[in-house]
Amino acid sequence: MYSRKKFIQKGAFAAGALLVGPSISRAADYFSPLKLTILHTNDTHSRIEPFPMDGGRNQGLGGVAARAQIIEKIRQEEEHVLLLDAGDIFQGTPYFNLYKGEPEIKAMAAMNYDACTIGNHDFDAGMENLATQLTSHANFSMLICNYDFTSTPMEQKTQPYKIFKKGKLKIGVFGIGIEGRGLIPDNLFGETKYLDPLQKANEVADQLKKDESCDMIICLSHLGYQYKESDKPSDETIAKGSENIDVIIGGHTHTFLDVPTVYKNIKGDDVIVNQVGWAGIVLGRLDFEFTKFSGKKLANSHSISVSQKTGD
After folding, report:
1. How far apart are CA 140 and CA 63, in angstroms?
2. From 68-82, 178-192, 298-312, the region with the lowest mean pLDDT
3. Which residues make Cβ contacts (< 8 Å) with residue 244, sequence separation at least 6?
4. Contact call for residues 11 and 55 (beta carbons, < 8 A)
5. CA–CA separation, 99 vs 122, rounded Å?
6. How far apart are CA 254 and CA 41, in angstroms?
7. Is residue 218 packed enough to be buried (19+ CB in 10 Å), middle (13-18) or exposed (0-12)?
8. Can you give the C-alpha Rg of the chain in angstroms?
9. Helix, strand or coil for residue 164?
10. Is the pTM of this model over 0.85?
11. 188, 123 in Cβ contact below 8 A?
């Protein structure tokens, strides 16, 4: 039999174990990172097949088959993956001239893209055509918050943002597009109303942060990386003028960034901007970690060359 002293000691130890056990579990949750991998493309311009082996600088690069293999391999390795595109899916090869975007949208659907935004060249066969391709072949969302498509064939074919749940994470994604007047022929841009991209970006990001409680907010931008004209909207001006955007995936200027650029927003917080050139010859990869202790951070970034060799 236990003495009264030993009985009290053992009882206290057992009670302590019950108290400490859940605390240790909670501490592990507090420090253990949740992971998210963002894969992204921009300005793929109907590059269905790799560049021909003709001695050119890009010979053998690109092509949806090799890209699909890389994406599938990463999905097998990582639990939570988002696949995004920043516009200009159309125009650039005979595939578009002949089939008006059907192979491009079908390829993206087969690769299970989560979302894209709209580029100026996606209007090249007309809004009716774009609407038809999306309605007939897309299983992903086209996101744009600063185009008002009321009374056009694209009405109700897009949405301003979408929220993706990846494990315990809520990721808000939205899109912004470039001014069409002077860039897109009037007969193609039609009655589309262009709205200020910074104003709309901040409105949507504020909604995603405060009303939807998103853990990360991603902007898909087809504005272009940066310009000499300081007043011209760009990824740079959006990043610096924003409040709640964490990541900008850019397009339009065909900029190859070896590593993402980090800007400070108006609150002094980091905004990560990345863009991976054109023609699908590079797949961008951003790996983030989230903890309750230290928040979110970019753990790694990669620019993955897309070729048949890397796709094997």
Report:
1. 20
2. 298-312
3. 202, 205, 206, 208, 209, 217
4. no
5. 13
6. 11
7. buried
8. 23
9. strand
10. yes
11. yes
